[in-house]
Amino acid sequence: MINLKQELNKFNEINVGGLEKSISDLPDDVKNSVKLYNKALESLKKQSEDIAIIELKKAVSLNPNFNEAINLLGLCYIYTNEKALAQDMFSRVIESESNGIKAFDYLKLVRGNHADAPPKTLPDKPDKQKAGTKKQIVAATKTPPPAALNAKKNLLRFILGVITGLIIMLIIAGPHIFKKNDTEALNNGDNDEPEVKVVVDEEYKNRYDELSVKHSELKNELKQSRSELEYVSNVRSLLEIQRMVNTNNLGDAADKVVALRSTAFTGIEKDIYDTFVDTVLPREAERLYDEAWNAIQKDENYEDGLELMRKVSEYAPEYKKDGVLYYTGKCYQHTGELQKAMDRYNEILEKFPRSVFVKFVNYRISEIQQVQGH
Question: What distance in Å separates the CA atoms of residue 166 and residue 172, rounded to the nearest whole number?
Fold first, then answer.
C-alpha cells in the first residue's frame, strides 16, 4: 500500500511567471487552472484536503485536459477514502491519453519508478526545455501508443534474430576461416603462421564475446518490453472492469477481476484492483449463490447448480462456505459422484460442526451409505 501523504507531497508548484514568459499566448483558463493547482498544493501542506479538492475541481473544470491536476485530485480522493471518485479520475486520465499508456507511466511514478516516468512538474528551466510545458498542461502528448510499443518489440525481435544468426555463423564458420588462413600462410611460406592464427583466434573470440553480450542485452530488453506491454494491457482491463460495473454487468466484471489475480499490481492500480475484489466479487457471489439455490432446490438442475456453486467459491472462497459445501455435495450425490459428495459432507462436519446444515449432512451420509451397502 502506498503512503498517500508522501505521494501528495511529491507534487510541486508550477512556475506561472516562467510559463507566461515562454508562452506568450497562454490562455487565461490554462493560467487560472495552474494558479488553482498551486493553491491546492498549499492547501494540502496545511492539511486542508477538502479545500484542495474544491480548488482542483475548479482547475479541472477550467482546463479539462490538465491531467496533472486530475491525478492529484484522484490521490486526494483516495486520501479522503472516496475510492470510487478516485477511480473515476484515473479512468478519465487513461481514456484521454493513448488508451491509458501515459496514465500507466504516471502510475509507475506513484509507485516510485522515476527512471521511466514522465515529468510531474513544470520547473523554471531555460527556454529550450520550457518549449514542451504548454503541451504538458493543455493536452496529453509524449507517450507512444500501444502500436509504438509493439513496433519496438518487433524491432528487438529482428535485431535479436540477426545477432543470433551472427553468433551461429561465427561458431560454424570460424574453424573454416582459420583453416583458410593457415593454408594461405603455408602456401606463402610464412614462418610466422602460429602468430597469425593466435591473432585471428583472439579477434574471433572478442567478436563472439561482443555479440554474446549484445545478444543477452537485447533478450533482457525484449523481456522487459513484453512485461510492460502485458502490464499496460492489465491496467486497461481495470478500466474495462469499471465500465462493466457502471453498466451493472457484474458477471463479466467478476470474471475479469478473477483473471487478473496473478497480476502483481502496485501503487494506485493495486488500490483500484483491491476495491474491485472487495466490492464486485462478494456482490456477484451473493447473486450466484441465490441462483444456484433455485437451480438445486426448486428446479433440481444439479449440473447447473454445481457450476454456479463452483463460481461462488471462485469469486469469494469464504462466502457461506458451509452452504456452498452442502449444496455442492448434494449436486455430486444426485449426479452419481458419491465420493465427492461424501468429501464435502465430511468437510462440513469437520470445519463447521455447529452449522445448520449438519443435520442434513447426517441424513445425506446415511443415504449414501445405504446405496453403498454399508
Answer: 10
DSSP 8-state class, residue 295: I
Q: How far lies 135's CA from each of 68, 147, 200, 290, in Å?
A: 12, 22, 55, 53
Do the domains 4-138 and 284-372 sit in the same CATH topology, yes or no? yes
Kindly report whether the global pTM for this prediction surpasses the value 0.70. Answer: no
Nearest to 44 by CA among 79, 89, 91, 86: 79
Torsion angle defined by CA atoms of residues 60, 63, 66 and 67, in that order, rounded to the nearest 10 degrees: 50
C-alpha cell of residue 191: 614462418
Mean pLDDT across the chain, nearest whole number?
76
* Three-class DSSP labels, 353-373: CCCCCHHHHHHHHHHHHHHHC
352 φ, ψ (degrees, to nearest 5): -130, 65
Domain 4-138: assigned CATH number:
1.25.40.10
Using CA atoms, how far apart are residues 174 and 170, in angstroms rounded to an integer? 5
- Counting Cβ atoms within 10 Å, is residue 176 exposed (0-12), middle (13-18) or buried (19+)? exposed
Q: Which three cell numbers stand for residue 231?
A: 502490464
Q: Are 215 and 164 in contact (CB under 8 A)?
A: yes
For the chain, state the CA radius of gyration: 32
Contacts of residue 323, Cβ cutoff 8 Å, sequence gap at least 6: 289, 357
Across 133-145, average pLDDT: 37
Task: Please count the other Cβ atoms lying within 10 Å of the Cβ belonging to residue 200.
Answer: 16
Position 259 pLDDT exceeds 90: yes
| b/e per residue 2-16 (b: at least 16 CB within 10 A) | bebeebbeebebbbb
Indicate the SS3 state at residue 119. Answer: coil
The count of residues in the chain is 374
174 and 197 in contact (C-beta within 8 Å)?
no
| 113 Rama sector, left if φ>0, alpha if ψ -120 to 50, beta otherwise | beta
Residue type present at position 97? E
The domain ranges of the chain are 4-138, 146-247, 284-372
pLDDT tens-digit readout, 311-336: 999 999 999 999 999 999 999 999 99
Under CATH, what is the fold of the domain 284-372? 1.25.40
Cβ atoms of 181 and 194 closer than 8 Å = no
Residue 305 has pLDDT above 90, yes or no: yes
